[in-house]
TrEMBL record:
<dbReference type="InterPro" id="IPR015421">
    <property type="entry name" value="PyrdxlP-dep_Trfase_major"/>
</dbReference>
<dbReference type="InterPro" id="IPR015422">
    <property type="entry name" value="PyrdxlP-dep_Trfase_small"/>
</dbReference>
<keyword id="KW-0663">Pyridoxal phosphate</keyword>
<dbReference type="InterPro" id="IPR015424">
    <property type="entry name" value="PyrdxlP-dep_Trfase"/>
</dbReference>
<dbReference type="Pfam" id="PF00266">
    <property type="entry name" value="Aminotran_5"/>
</dbReference>
<protein>
    <submittedName>
        <fullName>Aminotransferase class V-fold PLP-dependent enzyme</fullName>
    </submittedName>
</protein>
<dbReference type="GO" id="GO:0008483">
    <property type="term" value="F:transaminase activity"/>
</dbReference>
<feature type="domain" description="Aminotransferase class V">
    <location>
        <begin position="16"/>
        <end position="352"/>
    </location>
</feature>
<keyword id="KW-0808">Transferase</keyword>
<keyword id="KW-0032">Aminotransferase</keyword>
<dbReference type="InterPro" id="IPR000192">
    <property type="entry name" value="Aminotrans_V_dom"/>
</dbReference>
Amino acid sequence: MKNFKKQFPILGQYTYLNTAASGLLPEAVLEFRQDHDLDFLISGSILKEKQGEVLTGVREAVGRFFHCAPNRVALTPNFSYGFNVLMEGVEKGKKVLLLKNDYPSVNWAVESRDFETCYAAIDENLEQNISEVIEKERPDIFAFSLVQWINGIRIDLNFLKELKQKNPDLLLFGDGTQFCGTEDFDFEDSALDVLGASTYKWMNAGYGNAFFLFKEHMEEKIFPKSLGFNSLQGKYKAQEGSLIGKFEPGHLDTLNFGSLQAALELIEKTGMAEIEQRVKELTSEAKDAFKKEGLLEEAIVKREFHSPIFNIRGDEKLFQKLRSNNIICSQRGEGIRVSFHYFNTTEDLEKLMKTIRAKK
């Protein structure tokens, strides 16, 4: 097995089970950032003259990685900014289905605007709950996180395809922040009409960069009002009314978005198939171990598929014990959230379990 840890020096000190809160910065991305700012230091505006070329490369890299045409890839500083632009472009009065207790940046952006809302519960019957609410309420839009931030419940992507077949006019807006970077994903083949994601978590691209992907028909469905000089600058948006231009009204940071491209190059070099397989193996091992110790809520135990994010039973005392043993995780909801990425190992899980058992 490859030594995935060598790109992340922090793993020499800590057992890092906190990607769901903040991804690690790889050495490859750090090297890009250092070179970029050195170039800026000695070149000034000469470097910035290449901004369009750099951002075109980033857009093409994102599109290639997620199977989306680059003229339908918008670059934004974070998911929350982009999602607010998206919802501002939706006609007022539309009915939107949300998930109860979904990530605040999804629900708040809808609830703070003039939309009618309805909700489905997040539990072991998530997909059934969604179907029942849609049949009853007939919403125009379903906005949701592909993976839930507190307990890691992951929506079934095949279910979304079936949902779209039964409800072709229903628009699906997905937040992939806790999903993108954990498995291969073909946006064009998916049921989603829009996918947005911040990339500082599972893609290990650092802060200040995110993307939004759009199916072609979204040009006729949403009409954001934001506009600026940069809205019409660049290879893929140099025309009036460009949808992705509406998401990019000002100058974009070549340091942050170049970091995204460097992170994508590292993922491709490592191998997305190998990353996906490693994440799935660790997820399965962790679920079995947590289930055996009675650390999981029933909703997680009963679901067939799960993400690499878990909320295990534990209080402040256990959280501090984990920290004192250099195990990095987060307190979320009523428990302790741990998450496993491809650079984690079975030994990391074993250390976690040994520390948990030691408190008994």
